[in-house]
Amino acid sequence: MTRLANKVALVTGAASGIGFATAQRFAEEQAVVVLADRNGPLLAEALARIQEISPESDSACFDVTSEQAWKDLATTLMNRFGKLDVLINNAGFGRFQSIANLSYDDWKATVAVNLDSVFLGTKYMMPLLARSGSGSIVNMSSMRGIVAGPNASAYCAAKGGVRMLTKVTALECAEAGNGVRCNSVHPGHVETPLTAAAYAKPELAKEFLAHTPLARFGKARDIANAFLFLASEESSYMTGSELVVDGGVTCQ
Ligand code: NAD
């Protein structure tokens, strides 16, 4: 359980779901985790649980779409740790409507949280990641960043954008020779607070599982394990790659 020993990892959207499971998994592997989220009360609860495993872990309450907040966090982390080893750009949500019914405000909010935040996190954390010597950025995309679904225009566009932004980041880091790798993770249907209401509807759950070859929903820890692999030295020859964790949905 030392796969992230001596590493500092920042996880966004860490108060809930996949982000929390990732923070937990990283703490189990001896990382110091900085949990970031905009939901203050939930974040405080999450941090208390993580500190039981990793007492030096900390939290940062901010909105990942705020450029100033990212700048401020970079200063805070530089003063506190002098480096960052792992950045997990995970925070996100979807607004699902047909193009005809999706408001432009909902389009912009979806793209801002899922895609703009990844650009901002990458931009402002890069100097800290370069100081690591073996930095790793892992971006949360989705199977919806690879295959489309109806009523998901903004979400698919944003997650597809994350997929390509990941590859550009990988190339720029390789060219700079700064030791930073960048990869993306593409989950399928995962049980979290975000999806709980939808999966509680028997008809919808049945439909989703019918096109999932492994015939079960993913667990947050299934995705956390993928983040762990890409965050650790075990994936040191991987950059610009996309790791699909979808129970086989996109094989078909
Ligand atoms: P979740 O709702 O359980 O957790 C998301 C967390 O992100 C919440 O704690 C929320 O407060 C935080 N967050 C949202 N907007 C934020 C903002 N602007 N600033 C800071 N924090 C913010 O959701 P989840 O299912 O764990 O999803 C996490 C990520 O995984 C998302 O990017 C989502 O698109 C992606 N994803 C989820 C699934 C799935 O089936 N659950 C599948 C593919 C991809």
UniProtKB/TrEMBL annotation:
InterPro entries: KR_dom (IPR057326), NAD(P)-bd_dom_sf (IPR036291), Sc_DH/Rdtase_CS (IPR020904), SDR_fam (IPR002347)
Domain of life: Bacteria
Any GO BP: fatty acid elongation
Protein name: Short-chain dehydrogenase
PANTHER family noted in UniProt: OXIDOREDUCTASE, SHORT-CHAIN DEHYDROGENASES/REDUCTASES FAMILY MEMBER
Family: Belongs to the short-chain dehydrogenases/reductases (SDR) family.
One GO MF term attached to the UniProt entry: oxidoreductase activity, acting on the CH-OH group of donors, NAD or NADP as acceptor
